[in-house]
Amino acid sequence: MLFRTHNTRKTRTAAVAAIALSLALVATGCSAESGTSGGTDGGGDANLAITFLPKNLGNPYFDTSDAGGETAIKEFGGTFAEVGPVEATPDGQVSYINTLTQQGVGAIVVSANDPKAIGGALTEARDAGVKVVTFDSDTDPEYRDVFINQADAEGIAKVQVDLIAEQIGDAGEVAILSASANATNQNAWIKLMEEELATNHPNITLVETVYGDDDDQTSFDKTAALLQSHPNLKGIMSPTTVGIAAAARYLQTSEYKGTVALTGLGTPNQLRDYIEDGTVTAFALWNPADLGYLAAYAAKALIEGDITGADGDSFDAGELGEFTVGADGVVLLGDPFVFDKANIGDFDF
Amino acid sequence: MSDTTLAGTGATRTYRDYGHPLWRRLLVSRESAVILLLLLVIGVAMLRVNNFGSPLTMTYLLLDVAPILLIALPMTLIIITGEIDLSVASMVGLSSVLVGILHQGGLSIPVAGLIAVIVGCIGGAINGFLVTVVGLPSLAVTIGSLALYRGLAVGLLGTTAVTDFPQFWTDLAKSKIGGTALPSIIVPFLVLLVVFALLLHFTPFGRGIYSIGLSSEAATFSGVNVNRTKFILFVLAGAVSAFAGIYYTLRFGSARGDNATGLELQVIAAVLLGGVSIFGGRGALHGVIAGVLLIGVLGSALRLANVTADVINIITGVLLVLSVVSTSVLVWLQNTWQKSRRSARNRTAQHSPH
Known about the structure:
The structure holds 2 protein chains of 2 kinds.
Chain A: H1 2-44, E1 49-53, H2 60-75, E2 79-82, H3 94-103, E3 107-110, H4 119-127, E4 131-135, E5 146-149, H5 153-168, E6 172-178, H6 184-200, E7 204-211, H7 216-229, E8 233-238, H8 241-253, E9 261-264, H9 268-276, E10 282-285, H10 288-303, E11 314-316, E12 322-324, E13 330-332, E14 337-340
Parallel strand pairs in A: 1-2, 1-3, 3-4, 4-5, 5-13, 6-7, 6-8, 8-9
Antiparallel strand pairs in A: 10-14, 11-12
Helix pairs in contact in A: 2-10, 3-4, 5-6, 7-8
Chain B: H1 22-27, H2 30-48, H3 55-80, H4 88-104, H5 109-133, H6 138-157, H7 167-174, H8 186-201, H9 204-214, H10 216-221, H11 226-252, H12 263-273, H13 285-304, H14 309-351
Helix pairs in contact in B: 2-13, 3-8, 3-9, 3-11, 3-12, 3-13, 4-5, 4-6, 4-11, 5-6, 5-11, 7-11, 8-9, 12-13, 12-14, 13-14
């Protein structure tokens, strides 16, 4: 009797387990089905199927750049898709590149999380005939066809100096608020900014360069110290997004608001309030939408065989005009983009 | 037990060796449910998802899940004892960085790899020491070593990466066996699988693992050396994680401190999905392998079907929650059903005198 009860219970258990599992199966089966149509879209269309693979999804910067890519791809009648990992881990993009290789897309437009880790997967993709365009963040040159560079060091240095010169009337004391003292790109920019000031703006004196270590509070404190130790300071340049936001926050609530100019590299969402209340007049960065737009046209040119990524190749990029591939397969987007009160409303990243 | 047992035939028992015949014990289990689900998902994906049927799918899939497969082996044994090891992914990272630094320092890959595995054993031994000798809960200990080993890994290499590995070794990590679609990493995995399967399912040591999970005290009294068993398992987990770290480094050709971040959760998820009880005492390796492959195949098929990463995570998450919850729901259902039966029986009993 006892034995039989036990037996029946087990049968019941098995039945319920079967029901639970088939429910799970239905759930998964459905999703696989619903996605299939998407798969055909991606692989079926001629070979102008171009897929954007950002560092991670849900990142406003890449949402903007990929939207730019989508605009371009619609213009020339290709198929746009965007895939990517949830988190920006070095290997997270590999399985997506493998998948795109299998689907046989025309081109992958990728912002690399690691210059090397995705190299093997990209090589396999290129062996299978997929064109590879990197943008925003490059891989080692041997793994891709072209790299769309958002801005070069000269352009970044020049735009900041030009902006500060314009805002302080091309004369007076300025200072730089940088990230850390040993950041390679920061130091390269600062050196070029010093040269630009010396050659073209002799009446501007660079009194000090301070380092906020890309930490909000440190940058905030350094700004305060800078303003106290240099009472005649007329402007601050901060070539780092953390620095410029912290400096703007300090200026906004201090007596220096409106009298000390601030510019540098920043993102619209960080600086929107300060632009609107006049703490910051204008700042620079590249336009991610243009970056994505150009990358999409570069992918099209590669697919159609107009360019191979060799030095001197040139291609048409819709509204942005004609571009030429430079050394190492690098295409330069152009001068940095200046954000001010008039255009900041158009951007959300 | 009772005097009515047939006298003289000592070997004869009044109860059977098992409650159910062999085929039922093999087929009606959590493990077979996961295997069945895996086969069904593969079947559906073959029919409905473009490109899923190509041999490339299997190559990429196995390359991707290899670290999870490897680490799931010792993890299964640890979870069956009722413990857990959260530091495995950090150990992968540390091993990756060590291989990078030592190779940069002039050592060959096998020597650097061997040192990394030894460090893995030491890391595992530290976990094991704190859990068994000091007597701390493994959850707390390995959360600590998760941070510690990751900290060491990132501290040693900073934000830089070592990438100049010899072509021979990076090619080997990605190579396939002969003309098949099977990647070579499957060979060391199969060797380890045989070792762990024998250890868990066919040795007294393995029986000890199960009995520790069911009741640590009962295991002690029945002669199982609980501390030694757990210590050995943590050392094995450290060693296998370090080996997975070497593979990881060579496959991506990049030694970085943040390699394999979050991998421990994927491993534990797959082990639990494979039917191992988080409370210990229950589970089998074939279920775990199916669990790892199920998560991998689902991800692969859904990616090929252009489903976004968030949706893939939601589906895997729901599956995992269902698999864990299903156990509790079954117990609850059994109880209510039994209760209703009992009350029904009572009612008849009460009613009968009238």
